[in-house]
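Q: My labmate handed me this sequence with no annotations at all. I'd like to see what the chain might look like in three dimensions before we decide whether it's worth expressing. Could you predict it?
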Amino acid sequence: MKANGASEEPILTVLNPEGIQPEREIHGLSPRPDTLVGKTVNVINLHGGNEAIMESISRDIKTAVPDCTVVYFKTDGGFNGGPLTEDDWTKMLDCDAAILGHNFCGGAAMEMGRVAVRMELEGTPVVLVTFGLKTISDISKHIFMLEGVPAVREVHTAPRLDIDSVTESIPELINALTRPLNEEEKKKWHYKPSAPLRIAMTGTYAEVQAYFQGDPGAYTDSAPVARWTDGLPITPPTEEAVAQMLTETSHAADEVITPGFSKLCLGLPPLAGMEPSGQIATVEKVAINAVMAGCKPEYMPVALAMAEAGGCSGFEGDCSMGYMFIVSGPIAREIGMNSGGQLLCPGNPANMSLGRAATLIGLNLAGAKPGVLNMERCGNNIWGTTFAENEDSPWEGLNVLEGYGADESVLVMLVTTKLLPFCFGNLTPPKTGAEGQSPRIDSLISTLKYSGMDKGTFVVFTPDYARVFAERHGFNTAKGLQKYLWENINQTRLDWGASYGFYSQGSIAKFNPRGSRMLNPDHLDLPDNALMPRFMSANHIKIIVAGGEGSGWVWGGFLMYFTTSIDKWR
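A: Here is what I predict for the chain of 570 residues:
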């Protein structure tokens, strides 16, 4: 007791929530040619780069070194497209040196950095052309180190998309391609980071909060963010609390979580750990972050499935992505999730704490610190949105639609661009069949048709409105409605080619089989007025039943999705 009679404040020992840095082999750069005279230089626009800049570089290199052969080409796959093909790699490596770009955002820094590293490891000297922003350069340096070639050379250009020439940078580019390697650039070694401390600190509740928050003002080159939190107070992750969390899974505390989902699209092997940092996450690390989020022990299998999905791992590029998690199956009822009225509102402990756990997993395990390895310009308010599917449905659940059994619990993660508000649907019986069907179906089709840049869309029907579609319109299964929408939501080839959808889907379509409705090379050759499917496949239209009584639906768009079993984490 203190002298005034007050109790001594308890001292807490709390565990470290950060992921573990992996060991790796570090390699030097490929030897440089001493001149470009008589050499072949590939100028490679990895799909998504600034075409005008890369074309001007090829012309200016030829002007500066007339006796070298300069080959400019744009890859079929690559950043924001499909995987790089073997033909891409053959062409890219068929040279004496290469200039790769244009690295204009954090996402490009991740993707193009990985390509630059592979080319160096294959023996091709590379220079990466990059926007002159510290944040982008930092992401490049991170991926170079993570992939094992930290000395990859970069040349920085003005951070503007409206320029079409970088002539002033040509001497620097030539120098970077031909300058002899220094000792640091030749160095090879085995990188073994210091083992992270399992115990983060010991102190009072207030001291724990202050330590986990850190000093947001210390991030002078990025957003002011907390050290290990989402900016709010956390539940201290004590040994006892984490041990209790671990009782709700059969998996060992030191088991490494193998990421099941990747936002990277180059067809390269996935990162060893969580994206974008490459850090290793264990079951115990997930438990620590779940405790911090306020989760109850029985939520642990869902938190582990969220970690397998990568959590809210942000986006390294300019895009502002949100993360939505839908739980389908018996576990939602077991842990008391809200699948009915106000399911998107605050108030339900399971929904809210699990959404927060996904956020902390993204920050601490995936390393997606805003402004550090997360370059989103504005962010997204759909961040860790989590709810359950309503079992009061006339249709099969998401678990069945995703290929699981009706008695299995699954997690569906949507990497979303938007969630649009309630749309009212009239439940008054129609006078005629045509009157009853056309407004509802046509309204749904016309709304989902204009989903912007999205590769997929989702619709959340209230149970009552789902019954309207089942009983009045004859959609007896969600799969049937899914198929109908896919077959009837079209756009012209001209509209598709003018949208971001073409940019993000065009390369992927090249790899799909011809002759089907799925986006494939046949669609790329259509005349401008020809109709083609708006979405990649029927499964890119997610039908979800959730919400309270009455008629209505909510919809949104997504670029990527991932589904995994929750039961395997029990």
